[in-house]
Task: structure prediction
Amino acid sequence: MPHHSPLIATIVAGLVVAFLMGSLAHRLKISPIAGYLLAGILVGPFTPGFVADTKLANELAEIGVILLMFGVGLHFSLRDLLAVRKIAIPGAIVQIAAATLMGMGLSWIMGWSLMAGLVFGLALSVASTVVLLRALQGRDLVDTERGRIAIGWLIVEDLVMVLALVLLPVLAHIMAEGASGDISAIIKTLALTLLKVTGFVALMLVVGRRVIPAALHWVAHTGSRELFRLAVLAIALGVAFGAAMVFDVSFALGAFFAGMILGETPLSRRATEETLPLRDAFAVLFFVSVGMLFNPGIVLAQPLALLAAVAIILFGKSVAAYAIVRAFRHSGRTAITIAASLAQIGEFSFILAALGTGLGILPADARDIILASALISIFANPFLFSFVTSKKETEEEGEKQEAKPAPRPARNAHTILIGYGRVGSIVAAELRQRRGQLIIIEDQPDQASRATEDGFEVICGNAVESRILKTAGIAHAGTMLIAIPEGYEAGAIFQRARKIAPGVRVIARAHSDAEVDHLRELGVQDIVMAERETARRMLAISAVRAGAGA
Ligand code: AMP
Result:
């Protein structure tokens, strides 16, 4: 039976091949983005075998961009930025300028237009949030001073890019009109764009800021998870689409604003969680579609230009960042961490490249060089990063962290608590009353900083990683409480911990009989099944009431 469903074929091929390549990247301990891009190249028109529909892939990718930008907006934190503004703002701006100029220089040598040079340079100047956060998390640096500076720096980069995405189409338009020498037309275009953007921003700040949180609040109170999820998606996609249709601003800007407004509400955490699965899926399709555009022939056609672009990303940008951080009198180590974490390019570069080619200002060669150098820089980044931030230094800094109340325990049997959510935070508060030392492991940065604010010693990272467990001193811990909702993940943590500390006592949380069985098989002695405890407690209360009533 012949099937002709290009949309389904594109989604399925994209996701399946991305899964295979992503798993491979995971095995090789490199960013999965590299795997997704590779998957795109495999299903793309430049390699033999199955070829997915490029046009459809691009449309799917747009949804990915919207959700990615919505996520950037949700996480945009003015507070984080203000805390490090003195260095992050000038640092990022000077670095972007330096890298853009280097890129424009290369573009000039290649004989591309000025506008092409600008897009090319900007694309080389901006680092990938995904790659940077992974690098910092992998080294337990998110909560350190240099980690915070790097993140603040990235926020500024993101903001500059949001601005660039708005201005580039206008600039391209102006350049086209400038060629005809019509000044009044240029001014008209500029004024019109400014008016539209202002109109959109004003509408969002005045109306959106009231209506969106209120609507979400209402939906949250209906108690329907499904409706809440739908509401978040409707807001993200609806605002982005509406902004593009009515105000002619990019999807990206619309989604960023929708995210930023939601980010201010207390429901933002849930909103993030609810959109995460869909965002991940479409972000993968975005990376795949970028890979599909890539012509690997560029490696042979323009090897020198590619090498120069890679050098700009890996060394040009780093040297600039290093010099700026040093100029602000930070230590050499801080400077080198920040320089290394920014020595890569990623999603924004792809968005810029797509926009540039879409507007007809960026030659295909330039786009291919951006993609190839992104791939190389993403591959190289983990190695570069571990080369400059040796493990020993990380631990030293961890110990120096003044925010942490107590030094890491040396050999007394302390308690390790994993997860500082609804369950973990209550456990922690209670344990504080008792004697003995407590170390918390939490992998969500915002939850981790909440625990730090509450005065606990916290390690931000995933407890499934043995390295994180070791940093928490599992080898000489007495008890480990696994207060996370995923029973199977708890099992994985238990196995890692037992390998290092066979004698540690473990209490785990579970939510289903299957999880309880699994944990018991692994050898966890104490398992608390949340639903069963809730049931017991309900029965106990009703018995007391019944007794009192009789
Ligand atoms: P709750 O279900 O509200 O008690 O929240 C569970 C908490 O555990 C959340 O804050 C999660 O971020 C955290 N968590 C889940 N898995 C891990 C993990 N593997 N390592 C560290 N923290 C985790």
